[in-house]
Every structure is written in C-alpha cells, then in structure tokens.
Design goal:
The complex is a heterodimer. By secondary structure, chain A is α+β, with helices and mostly antiparallel strands. Helix content of chain A is about 20%, strand content about 35%. Among the domains of chain A are: about 20-60 and about 155-240, 2-Layer Sandwich (Gyrase A, domain 2); about 290-365, Elongation Factor Tu (Ef-tu), domain 3 (Beta Barrel). In chain A, strand 16 and strand 17 (about 315-325) form a beta hairpin. In chain A, helix 2 (about 45-55) packs across helix 7. The radius of gyration of chain A is 21 Å and the shape is globular. In chain A, about 45% of the residues are buried. Chain B has a single domain, classed as RNA polymerase II/Efflux pump adaptor protein, barrel-sandwich hybrid domain (OB fold (Dihydrolipoamide Acetyltransferase, E2P), Beta Barrel), CATH 2.40.50. The chains are: A alpha+beta, B alpha+beta.
Chain lengths: ~375, ~120
Amino acid sequence: MSDDDTPEEQPLGTLPLDAWHRGHGARMVPFAGYEMPIQYAGEHGGIVAEHEWTRQSASLFDVSHMGQLSISGENAAAELEKLVPGAVTSLGEGRMRYSLLLTEAGGIIDDLMITNAGAHIALVVNGAVKWDDIAHLREHLPDEITLTHYEDQALLALQGPKAAEVLDALVPGAGELTFMRARSFDWDGTPLWIARAGYTGEDGFEISVHADHAEKLADALTADDRVKPAGLGARDSLRLEAGLPLYGHDLTTEIDPVSAGLGFALSKKRRETGGWMGHQACAVKLGDGCASTRVGLLVEGRMPAREGAPVYAGDELVGKVTSGGFSPTLQRPIAMAYVGAEYAAEGAALEIEVRNKRLPAKVSPMPFVPHRYYRGS
Amino acid sequence: MPRYFTDEHEWIDVEGDSATIGITEYAQDQLGDIVFVELPTVGDEVEKGKEAAVVESVKAASDVYAPISGEVTEINAALEDEPGLVNSSPEDDGWFFRANVADKGELEGLMDEDAYKEFLANL
C-alpha cells in the first residue's frame, strides 16, 4: 500500500492550535508549509463523518495557515483596485468581496477575500501562496501604503447550519451578521473579528483571534455538543461539493478568471473602465470567449476521478480534471475539470480516463450541493 | 493457518496452494473512509511486489501490492457494493482476492504477526 501523495520535504511550521489538534486526536499532515490536521480520531472522526457533521450541525476548522493581511494609508482602496478586478472603493464598511490577484497576462496569482474593515482594508489570502502575494502587493502598492501581515492571529472557521446559534450564544450579536459581512466583537475582553463567510457552502463564520486566545476560543466552541472539530480532508470534500475552486489546483497563474468561470468577480463597471492588472487580457477573453472553461462533472459509478485525469469526448482529448473525489453527500464521485468550450454545455457526455478505464461523466452545474448562506431573514 | 504481513501493510493467509490477501487494520485506519476498491479480475496473473488492486479513500487513491505471485482465483465481490467492509473488517470480511501460490519460497521475508506488530510499533 502506498499513498499517491508524497509530502514535500521541507521544514514545517506549527500553528497556534497545534497542541490542541494533537490533543483531539488529529492526524497531522504537511500542508501549505505547516503541519495541519487532515482528520480527527474517534467516533465522530474521519473525513466522511466530519463532512456530514458540517452539513448537519457545525464543525470547527483551523485555517490559521491562511494569510491575514491589511493595507492602510491614504487611497489604500484605490491603490488596491489597481491590482484586483473587483470594486474596492465602493465597498461599504463591514462588507466583503471575493476577488483575485492577477498577472498582466490575466493569470490568477491567488484568490482572496477583501473586507472594508473601516480603519483598513483586510485581506485573507491562501496559505500556500501568501508569501508570493505579499511580495506582489509590496512590489505594486506605493510605498505610502502600509501592508501588515498579522502573523500572530489565528483564524478559525465555524461552519454548518448550527454555526449561527452556537456562535451567537457565545458572542451575542454575531448571529445578526449576514453573508459576506464582518465586524469586530468583544468576547469577554478578547477581541474577535468575525466574518460571515466560509469555504464549505454552508452558513458559517471565520473568526480571527490572537494566537494567545485561540485555544480558549476553540475550547469554548467545541464545549457545545453541536460543534466538533473537522480537518482539511472534510474541508476539501465540502468545498468540492460547493463548487468552490481550490487555488493551486483549479486556479493557477496559467488560468484566467474568465476561463475559470469567475466572471462574477470582474465588477461590471470595472470591466469597462479597466485600470487593473490583467484587465486587457481578461477583456480579450470576455470578448472572444475562452478555449477552455471550468466545469463540474458528475461521474458514473463509484470510482473517483482525481486531479490530472484526462477528459475525452470520444477519442478526442478535450480536457483535464483539476479536482476530484467522492462526494459524501451525493454518494458518488464528482470532479472539476477544464474542458474545451464546445464540450462545456450542461449535460454534455464526456469520459474521464482513470487507470486505463473510461468513466462516463456528465457536465453538471455547480454547486453540486446547494449553498445555504444566510442572507438575512 | 499462518498469516503473513508485508511492510506495505498487506496480509496474506496461506492454505495449501491458495492465498487470501487483504490490507491490515493499520492500513485501513491510515486510509480513512474507503469509497471504492478496484480488484483484479479472476484469471489475472499478479506478481509479488507489483500493483494488484487500488483502494480509493475520500482523500486519495492507494495501490495495494501482491505479497506473492500467482493467478487470481476469486475476488471479494461484496466490496463492490460495500467498500466500507475494508474499514469495518479489514482482516476478515474485507479481504480483497484469492490467488494460487506459484512459489511458496516467496513467503520468505514476509513478517509473521509478532514481527508485524513490532514493525508497527517502530513506525
């Protein structure tokens, strides 16, 4: 027996909740330069159990590997707008927006969350590429703009249909936030920054807390029977079901936002006005269309198709799987792939090659499992 | 009936000329929730140390190697509908396949239960 994933040999960092995870029976694996929990032991542990618990109750994920940054200074929003395709200057205080860092050629350097936090603009970027993001931002932002990296902040995600009632009991008022809104809270003297957002397709929150208080918060959240810890394994299967792309797999510097189906992140007005890095390349794609595009695939049978598997239409190679696995909710394999635009129509019948076998697959709309975000009652 | 183990966490029971092969409790625990098992076909020749089956967990695909060379005589068809048997009963109901043992000399170098326990303790 051997695992196809060979961990990279490099010195690994530890996150603030490292000991907490180990104490809860986590299996730690290298990820994004850190040792991180992939799943937990015990009756409620395991990727499928953690996945299902998130869909029916609430799970606590440690996402402290992600980069928590801020930019501030005069015209910070306008300066950031030169580097992202989304509107930042018009973002109201406490509002969040999903956006992208792009190369001049339109390649995706990273996807990120931008929040107008009042005194500054907060950014949450992917852990694996945060140092590249910081270098990119520092290179292109004027010297007067201050870029801060909050390395001493942990980030905990509480996700699931019961997340709001749990968090509101602990931090009164948190449940009043709606999807993609954020603000600061005081939790018995501990400052928290809480955003109603996540990466599972469920309602939920991401909570930024100083590393010194992360264990206390994790303990308080999991003291509630409705909350159990969940690892990276469930996080990946949940985001796949939710149709959310994973940077480094479904999004890379070789892929532009139009091909990736992220046109919603290109603000309508800014598509016309331009003035952001990568605009020209994206405008060409928007005008002429893309050679290939990201699609969801429902795979027949039970054999999962993984990243890298070739996609065929008859004898013709038409694309490649970028993420794939078994959907615990749908009890069947699902995948994301880039396929030629002429094969991307909903319902198109394709085949994925796995170990010299052809698995029938149909182009399916995403999300595979409906999102359940809270947008207000 | 002696049971042998490999350092790749397969087990093999040998009875006369027939061997039954599966993966160990340790292996299933490491793999996590198994969602699919790709077995060889009856009549296939498997070769010691070469891929004979694939287990798919939610997370990843992993190869299972033949602990011994021989012709596959039977596969555990129950795994098709219930791959989770490998998690719940890896060293019994969750067996993978049976093969004719071509050369019993190939059993040399495999671990017995005590040796495998010691091997696990040192991982």
